[in-house]
């Protein structure tokens, strides 16, 4: 059962776009609220990556992805401004946050595009999809043996 869930979530577009959007934006808001409550005692910056990956991987429209990056960066910047760091440290930290958000989204979008190009064009052709799945599983099995 878990295998089917992970296969679904790791297939670009398998999660409906509206679910990816709602879950991602709610997660971003929840992370921000936890960040506000915990103040600087617990740094939650890395947790913003998860909703960015979800929306980047499962949403076709770039505007939704860019919107998520902008909202995430603004909320992260608000939190950084409350940490009472020097101006230089704040600027450096904000630039690192922005570039890391952009990098995560860029890599995820690249992976999404690459995976979509390699998925079989199915229009109800279950045999072709099973063949792709067994080829994919065999390829993963041979790569795991190399490590």
Question: What can you tell me about this protein's structure?
Answer:
- The protein is mainly alpha-helical and 147 residues long.
- The protein has one domain.
- Helices cover 76% and strands 0% of the residues.
- The protein has 6 helices and no strands.
- Helix 2 (17-38) runs antiparallel to helix 3 (49-58), helix 3 runs antiparallel to helix 4 and helix 4 runs antiparallel to helix 5 (87-118).
- It is elongated.
- The model has no long low-confidence stretch (mean pLDDT 81).
Task: Quickly describe the structure.
The protein is 76% helix and 0% strand. The protein has six helices and no strands. It is elongated, with a radius of gyration of 19 Å.
Count up the helices: 6
Count of separate structural domains: 1
- What's the assembly state of these chains? single chain
Low-confidence stretches: none
Strand content: under 5%
Q: How can the largest sheet be summarized?
A: none
**Class based on secondary structure composition and strand pairing:** mainly alpha
Shape: elongated
Distance between the termini: 27 Å
Helical proportion? over 70%
Q: What is the element string, with H for helices and E for strands?
A: HHHHHH
> How many beta-strand runs?
0
Mean pLDDT: 81
The value of Rg in angstroms is 19 Å
